[in-house]
Amino acid sequence: MNKVPDILGFELKKAVEILGSEYELSIKETNSPKAKEEVRECRVIKQEYKNQHIELTISYF
């Protein structure tokens, strides 16, 4: 059994590269109400793994 990579805190693009095509991915997006529109760095803030499926929750900073 392969160990699922810990990608918490990674930029979304890098996280997807690391996971590759080995897992089925879904992405949930969230935004802070205090975030400024011009700041758009996207990072993984949560990951959940179930049966070869990874759900990533991302947020913009």
Helix amount: 10-25%
Approximate shape: elongated
Kindly provide the radius of gyration, computed on alpha-carbon positions and rounded to a whole number of angstroms: 12 Å
SS content category: mainly beta
* Overall pLDDT: 87
Count of separate DSSP helical elements: 1
CA(first)-CA(last) distance: 34 Å
Number of strands: 3
Count up the domains.
1
**What is the strand arrangement across the widest sheet?**
1-3-2
| Sheet of most strands | 3 strands, mixed
Protein name: PASTA domain-containing protein
Feature tags:
41% strand, 61 residues, mainly beta, PASTA domain-containing protein, 3-stranded mixed sheet, elongated, 3 strands
Structural overview:
- This protein has 61 residues and is mainly beta.
- The protein has one domain.
- It has one helix at 12-19; strands at 24-31, 42-50, 53-60.
- A three-stranded mixed β-sheet has the order 1-3-2, with no helix packed on it.
- Strand 2 (42-50) and strand 3 form a beta hairpin.
- It is elongated, with a radius of gyration of 12 Å.
- The N and C termini lie far apart (34 Å).
In short:
The protein is mostly beta strands. The protein has one helix spanning 12-19; strands spanning 24-31, 42-50, 53-60.
